[in-house]
Amino acid sequence: MKRSLSVPAVGAAAALLLGVTAACSSSSSSTTAAGASAAAANSPGTSTSPASSGGKSYNLTFIQGVAGDGFYVTMGCGMQAEAKKLGDATVNIQGPSQFDATLQNPIIESVTAAHPNAIMIAPDDVSASRPPISQAMAAGVKVVLVDTTLTDPTGAVSQISSDNTAGGADAFAAVEQLAPKGGQVFVVNTKPGISTTDERTAGFAAAAKANPKFSYVGVQYDQDTASLAAQVTLAELQKDPGVVAIFATNLFSAEGAATGIRQAGMSGKVKVVGFDAEPDEITALQQGTVQALIAQSPYVIGTDAVDQAVAALQGKPTTPKIGTKFTIITTANLNSAASQAAIYKTSC
Q1: Which whole-number Å values give the CA distances from 330 to 66, 119, 162, 178, 244, in the listed order?
Q2: 198 near 127, Cβ under 8 Å?
Q3: What's the pLDDT tens digit per position in 120-150?
Q4: What is the model's pLDDT at position 82?
Q5: Given the DSSP bridges, would you call strands 183-189 and 243-248 parallel, antiparallel or unpaired?
Q6: Cα 318 to chain centroid, rounded
Q7: How many CB atoms lie within 10 A of CB 240?
Q8: In this structure, are residues 16 and 305 in contact, taking their beta carbons and an 8 Å threshold?
Q9: What is the CA radius of gyration of the chain?
Q10: How many distinct helices (H) and strands (E) make up the chain?
Q11: What pLDDT score was predicted for residue 55?
């Protein structure tokens, strides 16, 4: 989910610009320094593409986790660009108005009834999204899971996402740099049952508990709304005034956390590490309400998804799991080419 750090940060803030690429055939990740340009993180060409669609026209549908979100807009841009590159594939894009399985499931059912060749989907719930996706598979539609996944992904052609557990762990590494003396930390998350944000929370919590300078005081849920994120942040800061940093797992969580900090009169005292690189989040970084952002590679997730879908339709081998890079953006490196390339799109 959008709202989806690599390598533990050591040294100056500028050293936070790092990349992670999960091994394509497993769920483990390998860590690399950010010497390679992060421009590749949001541009095509990081995976092996089918040479062409074999002269047959393929109809593909992308079902977003939520419509209008920059993360999914960027992913859709990657899909459309890759389909155009292949020449005989088209991508239709749909999505619910909120990140909610009860709104997304009818869309899955409607798309399945239209019987596209493949569906590329970010499931809105690890369990509740499974039945309609299973129905699509049973109808002969190839399914590629992008960003989020399912508790039981059996039958999916491929799962393509960031290593979100590592992202959460390295969000804590950023906190260690922002608050080196330690203190209390907590997470503002969206809602339980979303694979990506659950993994980010788990990764952050495990890393925080391993450092004796810090005390992890738990996670608060905001139901993916900035207003509730502000409320839970304010309440937590009133309960635990020793909090020095907050990890916000997506855009709305970061926006609300910043508001809650202001309402508590603790601006400048409590640091916020956010996830994703929406234009609004970049503004928050520039304004100092967020101190670090973890940008995923949604464009590459999109291009990889089309490649995997078309390969499956052509009867070619596919890759069960693909991990993509992310870039850590701070004010120190915001103007670099790599950071600028990692910022999400609002249109293609």
Answers
A1: 27, 35, 19, 11, 18
A2: no
A3: 999 999 999 999 999 999 999 999 999 999 9
A4: 97
A5: parallel
A6: 22
A7: 15
A8: no
A9: 19
A10: 10, 14
A11: 62
